[in-house]
Amino acid sequence: MSKETQLHDTLEQAQSTQDARMGPGVDDRFNSKLRQAFGASPFILTKFDAFMNWVRGNSMFILLFGIACCSIEMMHTYAAKHDLDRFGAGVPRASPRQADVIIVPGTIVSKFGPRMQRVYDQMPEPKFVVSMGSCTISGGPFQEGYNVVKGVEEIIPVDIHVPGCPPRPEALVYGVLKLQEQIQAGESAPVTVKPYELEQFGDLERDELVQELASEIDEDDLVMRYNWAESP
Amino acid sequence: MVELLPETVSDLIGIEGFAVEFLAAIVGAAIIGTIIMLQTALAGPWAKRKITAAFTDRISVNKFGPWGVGIIIPDSVRLLSKELIVPEGADRPAWDLAPLVIASSALLGFAVIPMGDLGPINFHLADPEVGLAFVFAIASIASIGLVMAGYSSNNKYSFLGGLRAVAQNLAYEIPLIIVGISVVIFAGSLQMSEIVAAQQQTLVELGPVAIPAWFAILNPFAFFLFLAANMAEVGRNPFDIPEAPTEIVAGFQTEYSSVYFVLIYLGEFIHIFLGGAIIATIFLGGPAGPILPGIVWFLIKIWAVFLLTQWLRSALPRVRIDQLIEIGWKQLLVLAFLNLFLTALIVGVLAA
Amino acid sequence: MSLEQPRPELDVGETPDGEVDYDELAELLGEYVLDRESHVNAEGFVIRPDDVVAVLDILKRDAGFDNLSCVTAQEYYDRYESIYHLKKYDDPTQELSVVVPTLRDEPVSQSAASVFDTANWHEREAYDLVGIEYEDHPDLRRILLPDTWQGHPLSLDYNQDQPQIVALREHADPMEHRSEVPDEQDTMFINIGPHHPATHGVLHLRTVLDGEQVIDVDPDLGYLHRCEEQMCQQSTYRHQIMPYPDRWDYISAGILNEWAYARAAESLADIDVPEYAQIIRTMSAEMCRIASHLLAVGTFALDIYGDFTAIFMYAITDREKVENLLEDLTGQRLMFNYLRLRGVAWDLPEPREEYFEKVREFCTYVPERLEEYHNLLSANELFQMRVIDTGILPPEVAKAYGCTGPVARGSGIDYDIRRDDPYGYYDELEWDVITDDGCDNFSRAFVRLEEIRQSARIIEQCVDLLEEWPEDEREIQSNVPRTLKPDADSEVYRTVEAAKGELGIYIRADGTDKPARFKIRSPAFCNLQSLEVMAEGEYVPDMVAALGSLDIVLGEVDR
To answer: Which of B156, B315, B321 sits opposite C310 (nearest CB)?
Structure first.
C-alpha cells in the first residue's frame, strides 16, 4: 500500500470516527450517561467541549524543564525579547503536578529516558508535549550515538515537533501557537479516563485493578529495549 | 457608630428575628468574600504576571480584553478542570483539608476588617472588641495548613517546605504581633473601628492639606517593622523560602494539582491582601481618604501593598533559612520590643 | 605588563627559560621510565601499570607538575593505554604525558586518585567508556552510562548493535536508592534532580541531609551523555567534526569550543592560520565568552533570587544583543560552526563599517551595563549575605581537583591559558586576568562579571585592528589539502581557555582522515568534582548557590 492510500485510509477512519461520534451511538467509548441523556449530539456538551478547548488552548503552564542546547533557546523564548507569556503560555512551574505542557528541549539518552517518562507521568491530564529540536525528533546530530534515544516519541507521545538545531525562539513560539491552534480545534484531544474504562474497572477494588492491569502487561514492556539496529 | 454590613442587609429584608439575622450575616459574608475573591482573581493570574513583566521589560499576556485581563477566564477554568492527582501514601484527610485551611483562614480574617463605605453601604462584617487579636489569630491558622500540606504530601520537598514554613511563621508572628500591640497602645483599643477612628484626627495642617494622624506617619519605625514582618508572614520575597522553586521545587505545594493547587494559590494571594488589609487598617487609616468613597481607598491601599510585594519579589534575593530565623528572632523581635517599650513610654508620658 | 607573570624558583626538570628538560626528568624518575614517546605537545614517559602512584607522586612533589589536566584511556589492538596529561599551574606550557600501557587480556592499572583527587572521576570515565580497571580506586563504578550497561562503548570490540536491555524496574523509581548513611537516624536522603530547577539541566545530586544541612552529596552524571567522543571519532577532520564542539558547552560558547578542536587539530596537522583570521577568531570567541558569562550570572541570580527576576531577564536581554552580533558574523545564534581548520568560514559581514559600529556600540554598552549588574548583585547587601563565605573552595583543593577557569580564579589561582599558553591573538592585546581570593560563591560570580569587562576590552582592540587591516591582506584561510590525513600515531593534547575553564582535546591519528581517539577534557566535569567539598556542611540553599557559581553545563560534563 502506498503512502497516499494509507494516509487516505487514516483520514477516512478519522472521518468515520467523527460520524460515529455524531450519529446514533455505535462506539460506546463516547457514550457517557450524560450523552445518552441529552441525545447523541447534545448542543450543550459540544459547546462545552468547544469552550474547554478554547480554555486549554489559551492558557497553559509550562514545566520548567531543561535538558540540553535547546533549553537555552527556550529560556530566550520566555525572556524579554520573545516573551512567550504574551500567548498565555509563559508561566513556568517547577512541579510537574501544576504544569500542562512539557517542552522537551534536548537530546534524550538512555539514562534519562525513564526519568523523563516519570516526569511526564507525574503531570495531570490534559497534558501536551512539544518536542523541541532535531534530537527530540530523531536523535538529531547524535543519532548514531550508542547511548542516544532516537527521538522523544519512543518514550512519550508528542503533539508538536519543532525542528531545528536548535530552533530559534521564533520557531518555538510558532510551535506553541500551532499547539494552541491544535488544541482549540479539538485535534489534540487530551487523554482522559474514558467512560468505558470506568465501566470496566469502576467497581474493582484497588488491588484487583492492579492485578487486572498487571495481567495485561507484556513482560517485554518492562524492559527498555535499546536496539540501534532495529530502530527506524 | 456606622451600621455594619449584615445590619444593612437585614434592614433591606425588613423582618426581625434570628433566622433573618443569620441569613443577613451569610449574605454579608458572601459580599465581602466576593470582593476579596475578585481582587485575588485579578491579582493571581493577571496582575502578578503583568507587574512582574513590567519589572523585567516584558509585555506578558495581552491577547484577551484590555491589557490581556481576559486571561483570567481561561486560566482559572483550565486550572480547575485539570486532573486531581492524589499521591500515593498521602495522609488523606490532612492532605485534603490543608488547601481549605490555607484559603479559608486568610479569608476569615476579612470578617473584622473595616473596608470602608460606598454610599449607604458600609463594608464591614463584624466589629468585635478584640478585632485585632482575632485577625492575628485567624491569619496564623494558615501555618497549620502549611504544615499539613507539607507532611501529608509524602514528599520530601513538601516536607522541607512545610518545616520551613513553620519555622518562618513562628519567627515572624511574634514580632508582628508585638508591633501590632504598639498600635493598640496608641489607639487604646483592639476594636478595628476604634483603631481606624483614632487615626482620623489631624496631625498637622500644612496649608490646605491636613496630614492625618495615621500611625504610619506617627510611628514610621513601627510601620517598617510591620511591613518587613508581614512580608515574611505572607511568605514573599525576600522571605519566600517555604516554596523556593530553585531549592525545594515548590515546597509544600509540590504535590498539589488542579483544584487544591488553585486553593493554595488563592490562599497565598488572599493572605497577601489580608496582610495589606491589616497594614491599611492599623497604619494607613483604614478606608480613610479624600473625595473617593472609602472602599476605593481601601482597595487602593491593599493593592499598594500587593504592588510592594511584587516589587520586592522582582528585586530582592531570597535569604537563607538560618539567616531568616536569625533576622526574625535576633533582630526583628528585639526591635519590636524596643518599639513597644518606647511607644508605651511616650504614650504614658503624654497621658500623664 | 599584565601578560607577564612572576616566575618562582625553578623546579627539577625546568630550564631557566621555562622549558621542560625531559632528560633531567627521566633522570629523576630513574628506572621507572621504560620508554620515551614523543607527542606533538610534550614527551611521554612510558611506565609500568603498578608504578603510577610512585611516578606521579615524584612528579607532583619534586618536579612541580601539580595539574593533572586529563586522563585519556584508549585501546590499541595489542594493549590498553592510560595517558596522564600533566601540567603546571604556574606555567601550563610545561607539559608531560605519563603513558601507562596495560595488557590487553587484563587491563588493570594502578589508580592515581591518591595523588590527584581529580583522577577519581577521570578514571571512572575511563573504566566506563574504555574498560580499563584501576586498582585501589576509591569508588570504581560507571559514571556516564547506566549501571546496567553491557560492554564499554569506546573499546574496539564493542558492538553497537547489540540491544541494551535496561529493566525499567531498575530505573523507574529514583527514590529507591536509600540513604548511604544508615547508622544515623536523623538524616534524610533526597534526590535533587535529574529534573530539578536548580541543577541547570539534568544533573542528579544524591544528597543526604541533616535537617537543612548537607552532609553528603554525590553527583550522578550521564543524563546527557551524547557520545560526543564517538561522534568525533567517526567524523572527518576537515569538516565533520567542527559542528560538534558547539554542542559541548552549548551556552553559546560555541566558538571557544571550536577553537579547542581547531587548536589541537591544527597543531597535529601543522596548519598555519593567517593572522587576520586569528583576530576574527579572538573577537568572536570573546563575544561567546560574554554571552556565556552573562548566562552564568543570570542563572546564578536565578538560583539566589528565586523566580525569573529582573537580573535574569536583563542578562538574557544583553545576551540577545551579543547573539545578534554573532549571528551577523556567523549566520547562527547558538551553534556557529564558524571556525575552519586553517582559519574561519567567512569574512566579516558587509558593510564592514556598519558592523564595526555595532560592535563598538556594544563594547561601550557593556561597562555601563556592568555597573547595573554590580548594583543589583555585588552591591546588594542581601545578596552579599547569601553568597559571601559560602561554598568555600580553598586554592589547594581547587588545584587538587583540577579546577580551572573562573572557578580557579575565584579561588585566587592566577591561571589563564589565554595568557600563560598564548594562542590566537591574545598575547598581542592589552587585557587583565581577573582573580579574587575570596574562594567563595561571591568571588566566582564577581570574577565572571569582571571578565565580561575584559572581554569587551579585547573585542574593542580586535575591532581596531580589523578596521585598519589592509584590504588586500584579508586572508581568512590558508591553503590546506582537501583531505587531512595526519601522520599515523601522532598524538596531541592541546587546551584553550573556554568559558568554563581549560578545555582540552586529545587526538591520536592513525593515518586516515578520521581520528583514532578523540578525547575531550571538559572543564565543567573537573569543576563539578569540587562540589562535594563546597557543599558538605552547608545548607541546601548554599549548595544550590555553589552549584550555580560553578556554572556547569551538562552538555560538557557528560559529553
So the answer is: B315
Among chain B residues, the shortest Cα distance to A91 is held by: B49
pLDDT at C556: 87
pLDDT band at C532 (very low <50, low <70, confident <90, very high): confident
- Domain with residue C130: its CATH number is 3.30.460.80
pLDDT at A37: 52
Q: Does residue C77 belong to any structural domain of this protein?
A: yes
Which chain C residue has the Cα nearest residue B240? C306
For residue C432, the number of C-alpha atoms closer than 13 Å in the C-beta half-sphere is 9
Q: Burial code of C258-287, b = ≥16 C-beta within 10 A, e = fewer?
A: bbbbbbbbbbbbebebbebbbbbbbbbbbb
Please report the pLDDT score of residue A3 as a whole number. 52
The pLDDT tens digits of the residues spanning C158-216 come to: 877 776 665 555 555 444 444 444 555 677 888 887 888 777 778 888 888 887 888 88
Indicate if C409 and C293 belong to the same structural domain.
yes
Which of C176, C200, C224 to mutate against chain A (most A CBs within 10 Å)?
Answer: C224
Is C426 in the same domain as C291? yes
Does position C261 have pLDDT exceeding 50, yes or no? yes
Residues of B whose CB is below 8 A from A55 = 73-74, 77-78, 81
Strand partners, C135: C110
The rounded Cα C215 to chain-centroid distance in angstroms is 28
- Number of C-beta neighbours around residue B351 at 10 A: 7
Q: What is the grid cell recorded at A221?
A: 514492556
What's the complex ipTM? 0.85
CB within 8 Å: B321 and C197: no
Rounded Cα–Cα distance for residues B280 and B55 (Å): 24
> Residue A191: is its pLDDT beyond 70?
no
Give Cβ neighbours of residue B32 (< 8 Å, ≥ 6 apart): B5, B110, B111, B115, B123, B125
Q: Say if residue B251's pLDDT is above 70.
A: yes
Percentage of residues of chain A with pLDDT beyond 70: 61
> What are the start-end ranges of the E strands in C211-298?
213-220
Which pLDDT score is estimated for C8?
54
Asked if the Cβ–Cβ distance from C383 to B160 is below 8 Å, we say no
Copy the grid coordinates of residue B164.
Answer: 520551613
Torsion of Cα atoms, C441 then C443 then C449 then C453, to 10°: -160
- Supply the range of the domain harboring residue C270: 228-558
pLDDT at B332: 87
pLDDT of res. A209:
66
Q: Does C540 sit within 8 Å of B247, measured CB to CB?
A: yes
CATH 1.20.1510.10 fits A56-184, yes or no: no
User: Between A3 and C110, where is the model more confident?
Assistant: C110
The answer to whether B110 and B125 are in contact (CB under 8 A) is: yes
Question: pTM for the complete prediction?
Answer: 0.85
The CA-atom distances, in angstroms, between C141 and each of C128, C145, C147 are 7, 10, 8
Q: Which residue of B has its CA nearest to A81?
A: B58
Q: Average of pLDDT values for C529-533?
A: 88
pLDDT band at B51 (very low <50, low <70, confident <90, very high): confident
Return d(Cα B165, Cα B240) in angstroms, integer: 9
Across-strand partners of C96? C86
- Same structural domain, C183 and C165: no
**CB-CB under 8 Å, A142 with C231:** yes
Identify all chain A residues contacting B253, using CB atoms and an 8 Å cutoff.
95, 98
Bridge partners of A162, per DSSP, are A132
Least CA distance to A124: which residue of chain B? B83
DSSP letter, residue C179: -
Distances (CA, A) of B255 to B178, C303, C399, C425: 35, 22, 42, 54
